Tc1-like transposase DDE domain-containing protein
Amino acid sequence: MGYKWKKFNRKILIEQPHIIAKRIKFLKKYLQYLQSDNYIFVFLDETWIYENGSPVKTWVNESDPLGVPQRLKGEGRRFTILHARTARGFLKDCDLMLGSDTEHGDYHKNMNAKIFTEWIEKQLLPALNSLDKTCVIALDNAPY
């Protein structure tokens, strides 16, 4: 059929077999919970935004001096945002916004186990108590 076994410079993403197996296991469990209708999924994650974050392109009216946005000096402080959501929407009183430590280029350095645990105890758990079903929490593998 014309195939030859040889080395090549990979320019494509190939997932490791153990990662594929974990993904399949997760999806099977997820579908079991979903089909039972006794559970509500709660997804949580963190992201970041710059204080002066601005789009690369925007609508401008060059004939109107007020219609041309002024260039900002720097992006400003970075904020880390944490929230939880279900299919019904974001959980009430479950948002957290942290001003960043500008020494770190990685926003994950602004969150730690103490802050995350405190958020769970003081905001997430009370919000989960208001839900009418048992909760299944889906989160990433951030170190905290």
Summary: The chain has two helices and five strands. The beta strands are 39-50, 78-86, 89-90, 96-99, 134-138. The longest helix spans residues 17-36. The two ends are 51 Å apart (CA to CA).
